[in-house]
Amino acid sequence: MFDPKAWIDAEDLGDVVALVHSHPDGAAVLSPLDRQAQQQTSLPWWLVSSRGLVEFPCVPHLLGRQFDFGQLDCYTLMKDAYALAGHTLPDFRYEEDWWQKGQNLYIDNLPKHGFYQVKNPEPGDVLMIQLASDKANHCAVYLGDNELLHHCPNRLSNRQSFGGYWYYHLHSIWRYERWQSSDFMGIYNDLVAGSS
């Protein structure tokens, strides 16, 4: 946590635009307490750790988001989950119902941005799902223990069992080439912070 006096002193010097702190012997991701405090500041946090200096943008908690196409949807949930794990994915501009207009947004772009296909999911992998389409038009993040994190239209973002319906409509599984198993702690810590 930060010192309130240091915060006031910083504000006296001008606008506070980010908060920098360190985990010298700890994880290279924000802790649950860090995520709660970051939400209070509404600022990007920079973390100095064994990974070096990494920026963590202040994204909404992963669970309980209101759906807003192009702003808070399945891709932005995946992108924000990866940001909390210390990885920056590109911003894509896409039309609503792009899969009905001959586009293949995910399958065309995942390999270009460091993802490769795997057969069995591990925590942090991306699950590509086909919903009423011949194209993969929905993405989810695999949480392990047969659970996924995703965001469907007209629903809050949530975690659900990766079985039955979702497993039946699975198109493919993708892994990020720079992913390390410890990166998943960034996602896990947000799930803990967002539910407390």
TrEMBL record:
Molecular function via GO: cysteine-type peptidase activity; metalloexopeptidase activity; zinc ion binding
InterPro entries named among the record's database cross-references: MPN (IPR037518), NLP_P60_dom (IPR000064), Papain-like_cys_pep_sf (IPR038765), VirAsm_ModProt (IPR051929)
Keyword terms of this UniProt record: Hydrolase, Metal-binding, Metalloprotease, Protease, Thiol protease, Zinc
Chain ranges of the NlpC/P60 domain: 42-177
Any one of the GO BP annotations: proteolysis
PROSITE patterns according to UniProt: MPN (PS50249), NLPC_P60 (PS51935)
Highest rank taxon of the organism: Bacteria
Domain MPN: 1-78
Similarity-based family: Belongs to the peptidase C40 family.
Protein name as catalogued: NlpC/P60 family protein
